[in-house]
Every structure is written in C-alpha cells, then in structure tokens.
Amino acid sequence: MVSLWSYWRGGAGNQRFDTVGGPMSYASELTRRNSTAVLTGEGRDSGTLRVDLSWRIRTNSDFGGSQRKWLDNWRHPLEVFKPAEIKGHSHGVANMDFDLACLYELTDGSKGVVQSLGGLLGEFNEAPYIKLSGDDRFGTGSGEHLYINLDNKDDLKRLLIFVYIYDGAPTFDRADVTVTLATPDGKNVEIGCTDPPPQARSCAVVLIESENGQLVARRQVKYVYGFQSEIDRLYGWGMTWGRGRK
Q1: Domain for residue 246, yes or no?
Q2: CB of 137 closer than 8 Å to CB of 189
Q3: Which residue among 33, 35, 125, 170 sits deepest, i.e. has the most Cβ atoms within 10 Å of its Cβ?
C-alpha cells in the first residue's frame, strides 16, 4: 500500500495505471521534455494501435491554482486516492464538439484524411488502414477512437493525429483534452492538449512517422485558428480542401 508520505514525495504521483479491460499497464505521457515514443517493435508489430480522444470540462475550481488543491489534500488526505473524474464528451454543458481526425501519407505516395466531416471514416483492412469509430457528438463518455492496422504498418509513411472543433465555440481553453495511443501490448501513451490559446479551433497533437521499420510518435500540440487546411499548410501535406458537412 502506498503511504501518504510516498504520495506527497511524488512516488505515486508520477505513476498512473490503467487496469480497465486487461492487466495493469503503465501510462506514460509525452511532454515538451519527453516528446518521443516508439510504438512498434518488441512484439508490437501486429494488431491494432488505438487512438482515443477524451476530454473533461474545466470547472471553476480548476482555475484556482495548485495552492487550493494542496490545501484540499491537506484537509482531506484520503481524497487523493479517489479515482479521477471520468473523461468524456459533455456537449450539452458547454456546447463542445471536439473531433478526432488523422492526416495520412502512405509509402506509395497517396495522401488523405480520416475524419467524421464528409463521412471520410477510412478503412481498416485496406488502404489507408485507418478507421474512425464515428462521430460521437452527444456525450457517451467513451469519446472517439481511431484504429490503425499495424499488420500493414510498412505501408504507413506518416500520420498526423489532430483534434478540431467543428461545431460550437472554440473552447480548447475550457477543457482538458487528451489523446491516448494504446499499443497492442497494453502501453498507453498520453498527449495532453496543454496551454491552448484563446479562440484556437484545431490542434495538431502527435505526428507518427515510420523510421527504420518502426513507428515513432512525436508530440506536437500546435494550435491553429482555422481548420484542416491550416493544419495541412503547417505540415506541408499539399492537399486541396473545400467546405464540408457532417
């Protein structure tokens, strides 16, 4: 059992575990200082790489700073062991509609996008080997998911995972948005959409590239005030864009 002293010293605070649906596994986080993770190799070259989008609306207490949180933990020390608040869609509360999408480039030179906008949901067993679970707009708590077929990882040159707000106000700064890469061996790599500027509508979250036969993820977390075309220009995808509807 982890003592309160160990928790406050950082022994438990630096480790996060996910036991849902399988054995205990370590969840690492990509940050500015630790920005890269190898997703394949060592028995992870087949199966499915799942990309999850989740968020939680930031309450007024979230803006109170770390001092208030420290005081609450001091007054109620057992609260630190309670499960974290469930993340998910809360469209009705703050008119939020975050969407998960992926720009892709295959080794044969073909390019495209997988997204709910325009019904471009992709294919899992044929090119582009990426499938979107659909647009979960009305708040089920499960968020949205991309499934990447690692059996065809040698056909993938680069993938850019991004999040955009199609409907409603640009509210990245009112939510804690997280993208999680879940590898077949149970490793979870989390990327938080931190420090969003006001009015940003899209965020390039993580770039996955093929290097020496492996897929390597690199944290991006770059915001733009427009949509897919601005993400495209930022990364030089060179596609032609038009207006679309869900």
Answers
A1: no
A2: no
A3: 170
